């Protein structure tokens, strides 16, 4: 869309400041977003709330006031209370229609201090004597905003001739799988307090299922009719993501599911590597609200292809989204499970323990180098933030029309009250928390035997020799760790150059012989990615970061150790992996 079309005014109303009739405010809706414009003789200020920052809007009514009891010690608050349009608890004496617009606006200019602030724009329509007329005007604005959010076409009927019988209907429905015991055991609390309110603000229906045992999510995804949902959102750590992805590949219709039903990842575990990598890829602020990027991605319905890796051991085939590890980092991951209650701090504590009691492992590492050029930037999602914004909106902005006027001219007032991530007023939207949905006509639904499907391997069998164009390292290793995402955890920037879909595996090799000082610098560098910047410099003889398409590890079976896939413990022995570019699909904010 060209700039002229983007600037086309779809809806517009004029507002006045109550105490200063000379100060005029205009509210415009364009394809760019919602424009709040203050125009006076001395100043011209404009705040644009981009459409991409608006997640939803709801039409509400004022709530019936309750009479104060004579024994009540505290007076009733005068703050506005609202209910749903058809609520029996609405105040019939107030003919106003309230349109609540929910936005999450990026604040701050530097990467280190950028964050999203929740802002509510309240449009109170009360120009007409009847609620039905005011509601018609509010519904017209709501309908256009909803279509802009979803990228749907607009027509003159939508803009000018809105009927109350013509309501915007949400066609999406989300499946939410939540692990209540993930991380520090706050998975359920994270969903209820951080995710559900945002989904409710966007008015998107969902079905919520709490995992009840290990591999619950894997069995659920394998046996249910997933096509009744338009997306799967998992709440927890990387473990539940692993279950969901491998459950998909245990269906013979995996190809249809993996391409048409994107996966959303809400961080609630100790590591949260994929959730952190997705936010990094989209240049989305992750801290101080790590669950917010995932919630915004889920309600906006945007997704991107993601590379997956087919992993083969002597006993099983798996599909990996994050990493394969052997040695130091895998030891830390598995052995620190006893400290799970500490959350991410467990990794720091066990890193010190393993550095003091350093181990090494003998074996062979084979790899096929990548011939894809390394990209130095990812500007795909980069965009100017709130260009021209000068009003600095508070957390809540209220605009009211003046009673008895033929058009929607009004006065402006604003007050600041920081809000938690909960639905506004008394509105609530219930989810099916204990769904009675049947399994449907789904492959494998009654077959308890696990069969792994997915694309066929392009590599020789694990028990056969590899071609001559593969490179080999033979000796003792402190660790070999492969990742296809930028982050292994929230504070572990493992492969700074990685992308969600760059078709590469980043193979980090630490050979035996590196000093403890070098290893300490390496571990400290993981938090900022400095280990990759210093690659092949001071420790280049022992520590290397290599982009590859495939690899094979053959550990010496006379020794014991750990091998992990996405943080999950697998049998110790030969293992090989190969990249499948853009095989999966994930929700991206």
Automatic annotation (TrEMBL):
<dbReference type="GO" id="GO:0042981">
    <property type="term" value="P:regulation of apoptotic process"/>
</dbReference>
<keyword id="KW-0418">Kinase</keyword>
<dbReference type="GO" id="GO:0005737">
    <property type="term" value="C:cytoplasm"/>
</dbReference>
<dbReference type="InterPro" id="IPR050187">
    <property type="entry name" value="Lipid_Phosphate_FormReg"/>
</dbReference>
<feature type="domain" description="DAGKc">
    <location>
        <begin position="169"/>
        <end position="315"/>
    </location>
</feature>
<dbReference type="GO" id="GO:0008481">
    <property type="term" value="F:sphingosine kinase activity"/>
</dbReference>
<feature type="region of interest" description="Disordered">
    <location>
        <begin position="422"/>
        <end position="458"/>
    </location>
</feature>
<dbReference type="InterPro" id="IPR016064">
    <property type="entry name" value="NAD/diacylglycerol_kinase_sf"/>
</dbReference>
<keyword id="KW-0472">Membrane</keyword>
<keyword id="KW-0067">ATP-binding</keyword>
<dbReference type="GO" id="GO:0012505">
    <property type="term" value="C:endomembrane system"/>
</dbReference>
<dbReference type="InterPro" id="IPR001206">
    <property type="entry name" value="Diacylglycerol_kinase_cat_dom"/>
</dbReference>
<dbReference type="GO" id="GO:0016020">
    <property type="term" value="C:membrane"/>
</dbReference>
<dbReference type="GO" id="GO:0005524">
    <property type="term" value="F:ATP binding"/>
</dbReference>
<dbReference type="GO" id="GO:0046512">
    <property type="term" value="P:sphingosine biosynthetic process"/>
</dbReference>
<feature type="compositionally biased region" description="Polar residues">
    <location>
        <begin position="422"/>
        <end position="435"/>
    </location>
</feature>
<dbReference type="Pfam" id="PF00781">
    <property type="entry name" value="DAGK_cat"/>
</dbReference>
<feature type="compositionally biased region" description="Basic and acidic residues">
    <location>
        <begin position="436"/>
        <end position="447"/>
    </location>
</feature>
<dbReference type="InterPro" id="IPR017438">
    <property type="entry name" value="ATP-NAD_kinase_N"/>
</dbReference>
<keyword id="KW-0808">Transferase</keyword>
<keyword id="KW-0547">Nucleotide-binding</keyword>
<protein>
    <recommendedName>
        <fullName>sphingosine kinase</fullName>
        <ecNumber>2.7.1.91</ecNumber>
    </recommendedName>
</protein>
């Amino acid at each position: 869309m060209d700039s002229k079309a983007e600037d086309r005014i779809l809806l517009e109303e004029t507002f006045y400041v109550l105490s200063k009739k000379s100060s005029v405010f205009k509210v415009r809706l364009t394809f760019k977003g919602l424009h709040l414009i203050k125009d006076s003789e001395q100043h011209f200020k404009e705040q644009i709330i981009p459409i991409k920052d608006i997640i939803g809007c709801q039409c509400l009514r004022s709530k019936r006031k309750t009479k104060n009891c004579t024994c009540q010690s505290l007076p009733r608050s005068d703050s506005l209370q609202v209910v749903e349009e058809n609520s029996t608890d609405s105040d019939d004496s107030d003919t106003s229609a309230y349109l609540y617009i929910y936005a999450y606006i990026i604040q701050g200019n530097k990467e280190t201090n950028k964050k999203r602030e929740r802002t509510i724009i309240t449009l109170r329509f009360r120009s007409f004597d009847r609620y039905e007329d005011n509601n018609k005007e509010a519904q017209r604005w709501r309908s256009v905003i909803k279509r802009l959010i979803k990228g749907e076409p607009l027509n003159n009927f939508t803009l000018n001739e809105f009927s109350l019988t013509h309501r915007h209907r949400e066609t999406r429905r989300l499946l939410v799988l939540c692990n209540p015991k993930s991380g520090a055991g706050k998975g359920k609390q994270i969903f209820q307090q951080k995710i559900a309110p945002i989904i409710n603000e966007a008015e998107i229906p969902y079905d919520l299922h709490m995992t009840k045992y290990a591999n619950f999510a894997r069995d659920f995804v394998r046996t249910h009719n997933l096509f009744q949902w338009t997306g799967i959102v998992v709440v927890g750590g990387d473990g539940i993501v692993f279950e969901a992805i491998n459950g998909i590949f245990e269906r013979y219709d995996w190809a249809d599911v993996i391409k048409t039903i994107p996966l959303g990842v809400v961080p609630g575990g100790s590591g949260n590597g994929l959730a952190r990598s997705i936010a990094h890829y989209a240049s989305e602020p992750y801290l101080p609200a790590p669950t917010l990027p995932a919630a915004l991605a889920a309600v906006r319905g945007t997704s991107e292809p993601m590379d997956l890796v087919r992993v083969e051991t002597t006993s099983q085939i798996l599909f990996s989204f994050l990493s394969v590890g052997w040695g130091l980092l895998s030891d830390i991951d598995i052995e620190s499970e006893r400290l799970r209650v500490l959350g991410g701090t467990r990794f720091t504590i066990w890193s010190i323990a393993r550095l003091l009691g350093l181990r090494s492992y003998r074996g062979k590492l084979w790899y096929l180098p990548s011939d894809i050029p390394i990209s130095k930037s990812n500007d795909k999602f980069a965009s100017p933030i709130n260009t021209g914004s000068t009003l600095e909106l508070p957390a809540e902005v209220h605009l009211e029309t003046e009673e008895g006027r033929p058009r929607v001219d009004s006065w402006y007032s604003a007050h600041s009250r920081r809000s938690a991530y909960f639905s506004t007023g008394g509105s609530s939207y219930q989810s099916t928390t204990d769904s009675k949905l049947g399994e449907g006509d789904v492959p494998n639904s009654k077959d308890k035997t696990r069969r792994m499907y997915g694309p066929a391997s392009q590599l020789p069998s694990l028990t056969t020799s590899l071609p001559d164009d593969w490179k080999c390292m033979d000796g003792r290793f402190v660790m070999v760790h492969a990742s296809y995402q930028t982050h292994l955890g929230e504070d572990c920037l493992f492969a700074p150059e990685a992308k969600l879909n760059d078709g590469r595996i980043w193979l980090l090799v630490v050979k035996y012989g590196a000093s403890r000082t070098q290893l300490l610098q390496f571990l400290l560098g993981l938090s900022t990615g400095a280990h990759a910047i210093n690659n092949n410099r001071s420790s280049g003889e022992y520590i290397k970061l290599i982009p590859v398409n495939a690899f094979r590890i053959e550990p010496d079976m006379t020794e014991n150790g750990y091998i992990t896939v996405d943080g999950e413990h697998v049998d110790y022995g030969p293992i090989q992996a190969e990249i499948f570019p853009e095989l999966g699909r994930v929700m991206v904010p």
